[in-house]
Amino acid sequence: MDKFELPADAAFWHPKIAMLYRYWRSIHPEGGGLPGRQHFDPTDVPRLLANIWLLDVERDPLRFRYRLVGTALERFYGEHATGRYLGEVNSKYFDPAYFQHYALVVNEHAHHYRRGAPTFEPDRRIASRAHVERLLLPLARDGSTVDTILALTVVLDQAGAEI
Q1: 80, exposed or middle or buried, with CB in 10 Å at 0-12, 13-18, 19+?
Q2: What is the pTM for the complete model shown?
C-alpha cells in the first residue's frame, strides 16, 4: 500500500476520518514501525481537533484511559471523560463487546473503523436519529508496543451533516 493510500474498507469514510488516516500514515517513522505520540503534532490537523481523542493503553489487565477528548465529543456525549477509563463514561450505555475493537488495535497494530449508532448518547432521541463514524489508530513510542490509541469520531445526522 502506498504511504498515503486509504485501505480497501475506506471507500465510504467521512472526509475527516480519511484525513486522519492519511495523516497517521504520513507520520510513520522512516525504516518502519508505528508512529508514536511524539510524532503526532496536533497543529498539523487543526480541523480535526474537536473530534480527536486519545486513549492511554494500560496492561495487566488491558485497560484504556482517556488522555484527551475533543470538545465536539464532550459536548455531544454530555460527560467529561479525560482521566477516566473506557467503560466508566456513560457506563449504562457501554457495550463491553466494543472493548474487542480496542484490543485488536493494540494486539494487531491495525486500524479499526466503525460506523453505526452512537453508544454513549445520554439523549436517546438524538441517538436514534444519528450515526457515528469512528477510527482507532495505534501509536507506539518505541515503534512496536502500542501505548496510545489515536481516535477520531464524527457524529452525523440522518442527512449526513455533522452534529
Answers
A1: exposed
A2: 0.90
Query: Is 8 in a helix, a strand, or coil?
Result: helix
β partners of residue 115? 133
152 CB contacts (<8 Å, ≥6 apart)? Answer: 16, 17, 20, 48, 51, 52, 53, 134, 135
Q: What tens digit of pLDDT does each residue of 130-151 get?
A: 888 999 999 999 999 999 999 9
CA dist 53 → 12, 30, 68, 72 (Å): 22, 25, 5, 10
For domain 8-157, say whether CATH 3.10.310.10 is its number: no
**Residues ≥6 apart with Cβ < 8 Å to 122:** 77, 78, 79, 90, 93
